[in-house]
Amino acid sequence: EAFLAAFQERIDAEQKIEPNDPMPEGYRKTLIRQISQHAHSEIIGMQPEGNWITRAPSLRRKAALLAKIQDEGGHGLYLYSAAETLGVSREEMTEQLLSGAAKYSSIFNYPALTWADIGAIGWLVDGAAIMNQIALCRCSYGPYARAMIRICKEESFHQRQGYEILITLCNGSDEQKEMAQDALNRFWWPSLMMFGPSEGESVHSQQSMLWKIKRFSNDDLRDKFINATVPQAEFLGLKVPDPELKWDEKKQGYDHGDIDWDEFWRVVKGDGPCNRERMRTRRKVEREGAWVREAALAYAEKRAAREAAARVAAE
Amino acid sequence: EAFLAAFQERIDAEQKIEPNDPMPEGYRKTLIRQISQHAHSEIIGMQPEGNWITRAPSLRRKAALLAKIQDEGGHGLYLYSAAETLGVSREEMTEQLLSGAAKYSSIFNYPALTWADIGAIGWLVDGAAIMNQIALCRCSYGPYARAMIRICKEESFHQRQGYEILITLCNGSDEQKEMAQDALNRFWWPSLMMFGPSEGESVHSQQSMLWKIKRFSNDDLRDKFINATVPQAEFLGLKVPDPELKWDEKKQGYDHGDIDWDEFWRVVKGDGPCNRERMRTRRKVEREGAWVREAALAYAEKRAAREAAARVAAE
Amino acid sequence: MAEDQTLFTYLLRLADDHLILSQRLGELCGYGPTLEEDLALTNISLDLMGQARALYAYAGEVEGKGRNEDQLAFLRYERDYLNALITELPNGDFAQTIVRQFFVAAFMVPFWREMERSSDETLRAIAAKASKEVAYHLRHTSEWVIRLGDGTDESHARMEEALDALVMYTGELFETDEVTEAALRAGYAVDPKSLAHEWQQTVDSVLREATLTLPESGHMQTGGRNGLHTEHLGHVLSELQYMQRTYPGLNW
Amino acid sequence: MAEDQTLFTYLLRLADDHLILSQRLGELCGYGPTLEEDLALTNISLDLMGQARALYAYAGEVEGKGRNEDQLAFLRYERDYLNALITELPNGDFAQTIVRQFFVAAFMVPFWREMERSSDETLRAIAAKASKEVAYHLRHTSEWVIRLGDGTDESHARMEEALDALVMYTGELFETDEVTEAALRAGYAVDPKSLAHEWQQTVDSVLREATLTLPESGHMQTGGRNGLHTEHLGHVLSELQYMQRTYPGLNW
C-alpha cells in the first residue's frame, strides 16, 4: 500500500515512469494492453490504404501513400518497442493479434473503396487518432509518451495530406466531389466511434485517469474532434452526414446525433465488413514469411558459431 | 515380316486401324507421341488466350473467348482419350508433359500481349493447325482420324472468329489497325514454324508417310497455309512481314523468305519467351489440384465400399 | 422512383451478379483441378455471361438512353455496380469456388423458377433459359460439395473453412429494399425472402450428405445492392474495364 | 532519329524501369516477411519512384509536347512501355523479390556511378542522388541473398529456384541498340556493356558468400526496350492506369 501511494505521488507530481522503475502490476498490464493495441492498429491500418497503392491516381500521390504506410509501419515498430520495455515480447504480441486475443482499432475493419477514402482516412481517421495521441504525449509512462511525440508529428503531416487530397477532389469535377462526399458519409460515424463509448462511471477508465495513462474522457476527445473537423468539412463544401449536428452557442461546441453503438460493438466483436479479411491477410503474411524468419535466424546462429570458433582458434 | 507386310497392305488399302487391331510397335509409339503432343498443345494453348479472358473488350468477345478455350480443353480430352486407346494412361501423359519429356507446339511459348493477338492466334495459329489437322482426318488410325474430324470443325469456327476479330480491328481506329499489324508481325513467322522444318530425307518422316499417319510434307502444308493466308492478310489491309514474299506465276503459289530455324530450335529446346512460365503454371495447377483429385478418389472409394456393403447386407 | 427506373435498377442488380460471378469463374479457365472440371466451371461461367448479356440488353432497352450491354457492363464506376458481395469474392481454393457457386445456385434455382411466372415477358424468357442452366450448376456444385465434404480429412477441413468464410455473405441474397418492394408491387419481381426456406433446405440436405454443417451465420454482410462493396471489386473492375477504358468508344 | 527523340527514348526506358519495379515492390507494402523488411522494401520502392519521377519530368521537358510525369507514366499503351523485362516480373516469393532486386541493384550501382560523369547536367544530378540510394539497395539485398542462401535448406532451395528463374532476364540490362549507341555518341549515356564485368563480379562474390552459384544463363530473354513484354505487364498496367483511364483529364 505504501508502494502504491508512493507511485501515485510520483504520478501526481508529473514524474515520468521509466522501464526499470517499480510499478503496480495493473499499471503495467493496462499499458501493455493499450500500447500493443495501438501498435496492432498501426499494422492492420496498413491494409486499407495498401489497397490503393497500385492504383493511386498520380505518381506524387502514390509516393505519398507509400511513405505514409511506411510511417505507419514505423509507428508500429516504436510502439512494439515501447511495449517491450514493459516485459512483453513482440512475438507474444503478434501471437495475441493473430489469435484474436488482442484488439486493434475497429476503424480499419471498414473498406477503402475509392480514392477519396484515402483522403478521408488521412483527414478523419488520422485526425481522430491525433486527438487521442496528443493527450498521450503527456502520458505518465516515459517510453510511450516519447513514442507519441514522434508519432504525433508524422500523423499531423498525414492528416494534412489526407485533407489535401480532399481539397483537390472538392475543387475538381462533379464525380470527384461526389466521391469525396461519399467517403465522408461512410467514414464520419466510424471516426466518431474511434473514441469509444462514453465511459460513464467505468472504474477501469477512472484508474487510467488517476495513473495519467489517459487524460481526457472519450466524450471530451470526441467533442474536440467534432469541433475541429466540422469547419474543415464546411471549407471543403461537404455535408457532414448528421442531420442533428448543430452549433451550440452556450457550450461553444457542436451537438451531434446519436452514435450507433450497436454497430460499434458488432464491428469490435468481429462482424465488421473487413474483420475476417484483415486477420486472414495478416495470418497469411505471417505464414508466408515464416521460412524467411527461420532462415535469418539460422544464418545468425551459424554466423555467431563461426565467429566464436574463429575467436577460439585465434586464442 | 509377314505381319508388317499385311499391316502395310491394310494401310495401303486405306483401311482404318482400330484399337484392338494388331499393329507394329513403331506405329503405336509414333501415334502415342504425336497424339499426346497434340493433346498437350491444346492444354498449354489455353494459357496465352486465358491471359485475355478477364480483359476481353466486349461481352460478346469474352463469351466467345471462354467458349473457344473451353473447346481447346475439350479437344485435349478427346485426344487424350484417343491416345489412351493405344495403351497409355492420361496420368502417364501428364507426367511426361510436366517432366518436359513430352513436347507441345512451340507456338504457345509466345506471349499474347494485346487483344489483337487473340485475333492473330485464331487466324494464324488455328489456321496453321487446321492445315495439319485436315490431313490428319484421313490418318490411318481410326480413333485419331475421328477425333480430328470433330476437332477440325470447331477449329475452323475458331479460325473464322479470330479473323473476324482482326476484320473489326482493321475497320477500326488507327490504333486498332496498328495493333492488328503488330500482332501479324509477331505471329507470322512462328506460325510458319508450326509446320516444322523441311524433312529432307528424314527416315522418321518417310515411315510416317508410309503408315499414312502423315500425308503431306511439312513444306507442302506450309505452302498451302501461306497461299491461303496471304490473300486474307491483303483483304485486311495488313502487310505480311516478309520482304521476300512474292507470287510465283509458274508454281501458282508464293515464294517466301528464309525461316529462322535457329529461333525455332531455341524455342523448342526451352528458351522461348514463355516456355518456363507455361510449365510453371501447368505444374502449379497440377499441384494445387492434387487435394481435390485425392478427395474425389477417396469419396469414390468410400461410396463403392458403402454400396458393396449395402449389397451384402441386402443378400 | 419511376417504374422504369425501378425495373432498370432491378435488372442491373441481377445482371451485375451474373457478370461479376462469370468474370471470377473466367479467371479460373485453364486452371481447374482436373481438365473435366475446368470445362465444367467454364461452362458455368459462360451460362452466367449469357444471362448477364440478356439482362444488360434488356436493362439498356428499359433505360432508353441508348446504352448497350457493353456500356452498361464496362463503363460504370465502382460504386455503381450493384452485385451481391458474394459474387465478387476471390476464387480462393477450389473449396471456396465450389461453396460460393453452390450457395448462389441454391438461390438461383428457385429464383428463376419463380421468375418464369413474372408479369414481364422478357424476364420470363430469360428465366426459362436460365432455369435449365442453373439446375445444372446446382447439381454439379452439390456433387462437389458432397465429394469434398465426404472425401479426405484435408478436403473436409477446407470445406469447413470455405463454409465459415462465405456463410456471412448469403444473407444479402434474401434482402429486400424499396427497389425490390416496388418491383414486387409491379408484379415482375420475385420476392427473395420467399426463397429462403427452400435455400436452407437445399443447403442443409446437401451438407448433410457431405457430412458438413452450415456454421451459425451471425451477422450478415451487406452493401452490394447499394454499391458498397468489398475491397476486391475494384481490382476485378480494373481488369474487366481495361480495354474499354484504355480505348474509349471503339468497336471490338 | 533526331537527337531529342533519342534522349527522350533513352530517358523513357530508364524511367519505365524504375516505375514498373517500384510498382511491383509497392504491391508488397504491408506484406513483408518482417515488419522491418516491409519498411525496407517500401523504402526501395519509394527511392525508385523518386528516380522515375525525375526521369519522366525530364523526359517530358525533352519531348517538348507538354506531357507531364503522370501523362508519361500512366497514359501510354502496353506496347509503348520500354522497361526491361526483369522489372515487370511478379514478386513471387521473398527469394524471387530479393534476387530480382539484387540483380537490378548490382547493375544500377555502376550505372549511376558512371552516369555521374554524363555530359547532361540533369542526368548528372539524378545520378548523384540515385547513386547513394542504390548503394543501399545493393547492400540490403546482398545481405538477404547471403542470409537466405546460407540460411536453412528451404531458403537455400528457394534461392536456387529464384536464381534459376531470373538469370535469363539479366542479359537485357546490358544490351545496346541504335538508341543506346546514338546516346553514347552524344555523350550523355552510359555503355551498359562496360558494366557487365563489374556486375558479374558483384554477383559472383555475393553468391559465393551465400553458398550459391549463378546458373548457366543460356539464352537471354529480351524485348522490353522495344515494348515486347511478358504477359505480366498488361496486368500491372490495368491497375497502374485504372484511375487515370477511368477519370481522364482530372487532377488528383
TrEMBL record, chains C, D:
Record-listed E.C. numbers: 1.14.13.149
Gene Ontology biological process terms, A to Z: phenylacetate catabolic process
Any GO molecular function: phenylacetyl-CoA 1,2-epoxidase activity
SUPFAM superfamilies in alphabetical order: Ferritin-like (SSF47240)
Gene3D superfamilies named in the record: 1.20.1260.10
Key words of the record: Oxidoreductase
Cellular-component GO terms for this entry: cytosol
Signal peptide: none
InterPro entries linked: Aromatic_CoA_ox/epox, Ferritin-like, Ferritin-like_SF, PaaA_PaaC, PaaC
Domain of life: Bacteria
Protein's UniProt keywords contain Oxidoreductase: yes
NCBIfam families registered for this protein in UniProt: PA_CoA_Oxy3 (TIGR02158)
UniProt name for this protein: Phenylacetate-CoA oxygenase subunit PaaC
Organism lineage: Bacteria, Pseudomonadati, Pseudomonadota, Alphaproteobacteria, Hyphomicrobiales
Gene that encodes it: paaC
